[in-house]
Amino acid sequence: MSRNKPHKSRVFCIGWHKTGTSTMGHALYELGYSVLGARLDMAQPLLNGNIDPVIQLTGHFDALQDVPWAALYKELDQAYPDSKFILTVRDEKAWLHSASKHFKDTDIPLHEWLYTDGVLLGNESLYLKRYRRHYREVNEYFKGRDDLLTMDLAKGDAWGKLCSFLEVPIPKKSFPHANKGKHSFNRKDRIVHFIRKIVPDPALRARVKVLEKLGFHNGRNRFNNVEANRKERQERVDHH
């Protein structure tokens, strides 16, 4: 099935990371959009004040989710008129708890651009302030417009609300829920998690390469960012 079907407009998920952005990415993928997810390697051009290559990259996809894209909603609005925007929201305490568990004390250059400090641990108030500012400014920017949809996944927002906004049919499948914590795993989640733990990474990568040669899509790269982010992380490790 082609993932490059024509759509009426581009879709930009501008909810802050750790607010259900992966879930939205999977949902848009299932609706036939080509999706670009978080790109850690965009940190350097952004830190250098060079936004052109960042915006140019977005032109190859018809949907974006996660960062840095969420923070670039004004630039994306200007670059792609008549696009649609989706704002995922989450309780701020739950967001900070999730972000703290995920990022911990890792120094992430893209977070330096987002928050002015790349390390979350010890900077919780700084990160929370930026989180609040994002939502305040997005709502101010889109006030009076009809091209912004707010989605609260924790309250059950799913296919009905999303597909009505995008003017597309509702798929005959369950709404995806990505990046769930272990505490909310169902039986299938637990099985998949167990298999991933016992299968060594080299074997998994070899399996992926074989499937790609046979023409199957790499499901782990649905958001077209796996290799770029892996390379960025490795370069960061080598640098230190």
Tell me what the structure shows.
The protein has 240 residues and is an alpha/beta fold. It has a single domain (11-181), classed as Rossmann fold (3-Layer(aba) Sandwich), CATH 3.40.50. The chain has 11 helices and 5 strands, in the order βαβααβαβαααβαααα. The protein has helices spanning 21-30, 43-47, 52-58, 73-79, 92-103, 109-115, 124-141, 159-166, 187-198, 201-213, 226-239, and strands at residues 11-13, 35-36, 63-64, 84-88, 148-151. Strands 2-3-1-4-5 form a 5-stranded parallel beta sheet, with helices on one face. The chain is globular and about 50 Å long.
Beta-strand percent range: 5-15%
Helices, by number, come to: 11
Oligomer: single chain
Number-wise, the strands total: 5
Number of domains: 1
**N-to-C order of helices and strands:** EHEHHEHEHHHEHHHH
CATH hierarchy class name: Alpha Beta
CATH architecture term? 3-Layer(aba) Sandwich
The CATH topology is given as Rossmann fold
Give the biggest beta sheet. Answer: 5 strands, parallel
Percent of residues in helices: 40-55%
Distance between the termini: 42 Å
Strands of the biggest beta sheet: in what spatial order? 2-3-1-4-5
* Overall 3D form: globular
